[in-house]
Structures are given as structure tokens and as C-alpha cells.
Amino acid sequence: MHGLLTRLGLRFEDVVEERRFVDQYVRGNIGWTQVAMLLGVLTYAGYAFWDWVLYPEVVSTTLAIRGGTALFVLLPLTLLLSVPAAKSWAETIFLVYCVVPGCVLPSVYLVLPSGFTYAAPGMIMVILFVSTMLPLRVGSLAVFCFATWIALCIAESFAPALPAGLRFINHSLVCNAYALSLYAVAAREFRARRQFRTAEALKQEKERSEASLRELHATQSHLVQAEKLASLGQLVAGVAHEVSTPLGLALTTSTAMETDLRTIARTLNGTAVRRSDLMKGIGRLGEGLRITFENLHRASEMVHSFKQVAIHQADEESHTFELGGWLSELVAKLGPLLSRQGLIVDVTCPQGIILNSYPGALAQVISNLAFNAAAHAYPDGKGGVFMVTVSQPEPTAVRIVCADRGIGIPSDMQGRVFDPFVTTGRERGNIGLGLHVVFNIVVSSLSGRIELDSKPNCGTLVAIEIPVSG
User: Fold this and answer.
1) Which of 41, 79, 262, 383 is the most buried (most CB within 10 A)?
2) d(C-alpha 440, C-alpha 450), whole Å
3) With bands split at pLDDT 50, 70 and 90, how would you rate the model's confidence at 432?
4) What is the sign of the dihedral through the CA atoms of 219, 223, 224 and 229?
């Protein structure tokens, strides 16, 4: 039987899926089902009024049968569904609620003087109510049909002789009603199962999409972190290169001073010391100390500047700062690194623009765009100009335009430049994450917008618009 129902689409092979469907189909709207059951209680007992109209002499008996069934069976079953523990037995309660009045009804026709003349319409009314108002599945409805038909046959066996053909007509009408109700309930359950499958598939697809989205966000976060580490590595390399020159000069000068000091010591240990030799040695030591101090001071300033840049790029806190002065300070600190690649930075920013935003994220964006211009806009290594122009088109927003006059971006790549791993310099070791990270920081961290416009051999323009208060 289970195999047949499965092939007909009236049962799921998966037991867990079947249980979830039954819970939703049978117990999904208990409240509304109870309203229908109360209506059934009133209707079943109310047919005693018809008995009184036609046969007042037997109304007390029929009212006892109908009213007793409604009062002592149907109504308690309806109220029982309000108990939380009984809801797990809802399908059984529905079946008993249907079978009992359907089996009791034929006994009423044994009492009525008309006998079974109107038995078929009465049974059809019960079948109609059961098949339309209650969430019975086709299996439970089949049990109801079989039980009530047996009860009808038994009651007819105790009845006086029926008119010729009446038994055949009654059973024909009732069995026809059974067939129609079984088809209607089966069709309704089949549609409900298909809708359930569709809803489950949509739910699973939604969960997969949400999981993919979470994974994408995690990947983007990892990419941002990787780009920060790459920028930090580039900064460290720049520090090593820039600081090595003054430190090397200081080391060379200190070595020369050590030699001069030993020469003076040997001279002083001699028998005769000329004033001119002594003054010359002291002068060389003084010059050496001056050169050493200047180079060490220069190295100290570089280390401090690079440290500030690193702090800005790692800063994730929101601060209030004046944009013009902050930009000048950032460009001054990045200058030694950019000058190595021949890039000249030109900043145009009105004074007095105050931002409450994330300076670390903004520093990451501008430095990435600058290094990207140095690497891609001027690939010949001769360098060029990188212009940063700031304007405030409205009081609540700031527009920062970063532009170069380099070779531009090919037209077929302009729609994909913000995608991850898109680069024109893969042969030079670039992996294509710089502009992708810039896009993510502008949109996610700075809550802004970013646009790109580029023409071959005419340069590239990147416009960033961010709110004044983030």
C-alpha cells in the first residue's frame, strides 16, 4: 500500500519528510479546523429540527441520538484539540470525529417512519462535510468511507422491507459520493505535497544561498586582510630600502670617525703634537658627528612616518578629522615609497572639510589606488602624476577623485576591474586584488560609492563618494 501511495504522489519515501508534511498538513491550522468542527457539531445536532418538522412523534428519540453524539463525542473531541499534548494525535481525533457520526447516522433512519428513503442525502451531507472541512488524508478518508458504508449496510439489515430498487439507489448515490470525495481529497493532498516539496526546495535553496553569501563575505574579509598584509609587506620593504641609506651613511661616517679617533690617539702618544693636526682631526670628528646625527635623525623621522602610516592602515575606529591636513600628511608619509616608482602625487583639497569616518580604511583606499597607478598606469617605470582632487558637492557627502594620465584600462576589462583576481599585470606577479579590496572598503567600511572611467592612452579616473559622517 505504501508503495502504491508513493507512486501516486500521496506519500514520501523519506520518513522524516513524510512526518514534516503530516505535521504541516494535518496540524497546520488547528484553530480553523476547530471552528469547522464546532460548525459540524451544530449542523449534526440541528438536523433534529427537520425530524421535528416531518415526524414530531419521534423527535425525542432522534434528538437523543443526534444530540448525544454531538454533545458526548463531537464536542469533547473538538475541545480536546486545545490541549497541547493531544495535538500529536490530531489525525486520529479527526478520524474518530468523522467515523462516529457517520456510523451513528444510519440508526436514525431505523427510527424515522420514512425509513431509509432519505438515507442517501443524509449520508452525502456527512461525506461532503468530512471531505471539504477537515484536513483528512486520503488514507483516513478511505477508512471513514469503509466504516460508514459497513454501518449503513448493517442498519439496512435491521430495517423493514425496503421499496424495490431503493437499496440499489441509496448505495449507488453513497458510493458515488465516496468516489468523488476520495478523488477530491487525493487531489488536494497531491497538490499540498507538491507545494510542500516546492517550499522545502526553496527553503533549502535559500539556506544554500545564505551559506554561500556568508562564505563570500568571509572570503572578502580574508581578501581584505590579505591585501592589508600585502600592503604592510610593501611598507616594510619600503622602510628597509629608505632607512638603509641614512643608516648606511651613519655607519660609514662612524667608521671613518673611529679611524680619525685612533689617528689622534696615536698623535697624542707621540713626542710632538702639532696644533694644526689636532684641529684638523677634531674638525673631521665634528663633521662626522654632524653627518651621523643628520642621517640618524632622518632615519628616525622615516621610521616614525612609516609607523604612522601602518597605524592608519590598521586603524578600524571611527574618528573626526580634517580631510585636507590628513591627506597632506598621508601623502607626505607615502611619498618616499611612491617616489621610488617615479610617481608624483598632486593633492587638491579645500580646507575645512571635516569627516567623521574611518581614516585607516580611507588610507588603505588611497594608497592602494596610488600604488595601482604606479604599477599599471605607468608600467614603463618612468612614473607620472597621480592627482587627488576633493570636493564637497553636498553638505552630507565628500567626493574624492583619484586620476592618472597613464595608459588607461582596456575597454573590455573596465566592467570587471573591481572583480577579484582581474589584472593586466599577472606576468609581473600581480594577483588582481587591489581594486577589489578598494571596492569592498568603500562600499562596506566607508558606506560609499565608487565609479571608474578610463580611456586608452588618456588615463584612468576613480571617483569615490563617501558620507561626511560614517
Assistant:
1) 41
2) 10
3) low
4) positive
- Alpha carbon 251 to chain centroid, angstroms: 58
Q: What is the mean pLDDT of residues 267-289?
A: 76
3-state class (DSSP) for residue 391: strand
Residues 6+ apart with CB under 8 A from 399: 390, 391, 392, 393, 463, 464, 465
In a 13 Å sphere around the CA of 323, the CA atoms on its Cβ side amount to: 27
Residues 6 or more apart whose CB falls under 8 angstroms from that of 345 comprise: 331, 334, 335, 338, 370, 385, 386, 387, 388
Instruction: Compute CA distances 28 → 20, 24, 112, 154, whole Å.
Output: 10, 4, 40, 36
Parallel, antiparallel or unpaired: strands 459-467 and 449-455: antiparallel
Q: Which residues contact 401 (CB under 8 A, 6 or more apart)?
A: 387, 388, 389, 390, 391, 461, 462, 463, 464
Query: What does DSSP say about strands 397-404 and 384-394: parallel, antiparallel, or unpaired?
Result: antiparallel
- Distance of alpha carbon 110 from alpha carbon 58, whole angstroms: 11
Q: How many residues does the chain have?
A: 470
**Whole-number pLDDT of residue 242:** 64
Q: Which of 411, 308, 405, 413 has its CA nearest to residue 363? A: 308
Candidate ranges 25-34, 95-104, 355-364, 381-390; pick with highest mean pLDDT? 95-104
- pLDDT category of residue 128 using cuts at 50, 70 and 90: very high
**Would you place residue 8 in the very low, low, confident or very high pLDDT band (cuts 50, 70, 90)?**
low
SS3 readout for 436-456? HHHHHHHHHHCCCEEEEEEEC
Q: Cα–Cα distance between 351 and 358 in angstroms, integer? A: 19
pTM of the model: 0.51
Q: Are 111 and 61 in contact (CB under 8 A)?
A: yes
DSSP string over 177-234: HHHHHHHHHHHHHHHHHHHHHHHHHHHHHHHHHHHHHHHHHHHHHHHHHHHHHHHHHH
Sequence-distant (6+) residues with CB within 8 A of 234 are 337, 371
Vertex 94: Cα angle to 90 and 99 (nearest 5): 150
* Res. 403 pLDDT band, cuts 50 70 90: very high
Separation between Cα atoms, residue 236 and residue 1, nearest integer Å? 75
**End-to-end CA distance of the chain, in Å?**
65
